[in-house]
Amino acid sequence: MNIREIFFLFFVLTGFILSILNNFYQIEYFDYFRASLDGSKLHSMINSDIFLFWKEGALTAEDLINGKNYFLTGEEYRRPYLPSRIYAFFSILMSQDLLTNDGLVSLEFNKILILISQTIIFYFLIIFLYFVLIKHLPKNVSKIIIIFLAFEPTLFMYHSSFLSESIFFSFQILLLIFILFKNHSNFSIFLIGLILGILYLQRSVAIFYIIPILIYFYSLNKKFFIRYALIMLVSLSIVHTFVGYHNLKRIGFFYNVSAQAKDGFYDYLLPIIISEKNKINISDAKIYLEDKKKIWMKKNNLENKSFEDELNRLKYYDYAKNYSLNIMIKNPLLTSKIILKKTLHFFIIDPLTHVYYFHRWDNLDGSFYGSDTQKKWVVPRIIYSLIIYFFVFLGFYNFFRNEKNNKLFFLIILSILYFTIVQSWYGGTRYFAPILIYLSFPFAFGLVSFKNFIQNNLIKNESSK
User: Fold this and answer.
1) Which of the two ends of the chain, N or C, has the fewest CB atoms closer than 10 A to its terminal CB?
2) CA angle (420 as vertex; 51, 201 as ends), nearest 5
3) Does the predicted TM-score (pTM) go above 0.90?
4) Phi, psi at 160, each rounded to 5°
5) Cα first-last separation, the chain
């Protein structure tokens, strides 16, 4: 290992140390309660969906400590499966309760250990990724990829948050490591399927990510594709069967797709479609959909207390999915226009909002979105995004010109397209973050080609003097 290699690894280590320091900073300044609009206590870092994961983790840990069968623990499979189990694991490991007796987030719980753990895992994996990448790509390109992953502020900030992103990033990196192995064995393919399953357990959006992975393996090795596909599907099925069996033992019904994966369109996209289609405001569109829901419930005898039964709610989630798809198919141009608008917003990179400002924002000041603070960051975010995309597009341009590393870039393109398709319709910039893992590759190629272009022109200018 030469001096440049040592300096590079030390530089990445600096990123790791800064991330650890940020872990402590976030806990020091944001591990407290603030007032919510309804007057209740709201933890600055653990609220909204994170609190629901935290709460389920607390219930799971309590049940397991009391000797309850694991497959009888947990609640309705509405949100991703893994985050609440991670919190339960740390609670049991440290013998500390996640919640107080009155159901609030415990300020005594040693939260920093979770943040430090996910930071260690991520930085360890990107170093591992580097030693895999240099077998496929030039060293200078590989180094830039790793530096991007280590320091890009959007990725960097999530390691100091209890959102699901940091662990999801780590499994994305781990998946890339196994995919980039030069000589695949049946076991490595089996592990790829398992990692794909775990990705889904951490974030529901990865449910169909096996499709681009299979397309990539088909382009990579048609001779062994059938064998690889079968092994991958078997290992992925093990994960889905595990979740389905858990639900079967818990409520007597086998299902392995979270409710959020079914009613997302209905809750977040359909009100906008109905609003624009019927020329009404969003509030009236939601009332319209609520009336539709009541009619469906009455028709299916699911009114009043019967809807408190999880099995009946599962029927509703199927209805919501089918109704949403039906409306979207019947209104293709309107749906496409709305999704395109949301996608444009989706691609504006947002390094600070989902960690720093969501932690420090006072809800008594109203919504962060639309506030003066949010508006002042719009232009800097656009400029930052354009800088990133300049090098990304330059990287893709050079790739299409010479088609070196074409199989790897094919995987990168498939991954970007996949996560754009399954997430951009929501429009939230938080959901763009996983795509940055893949954008690091064309960004690195673009930066190197830009550097070479500048150097070549300087040499030409010097020689012409």
Assistant:
1) C
2) 40
3) yes
4) -110, 30
5) 40
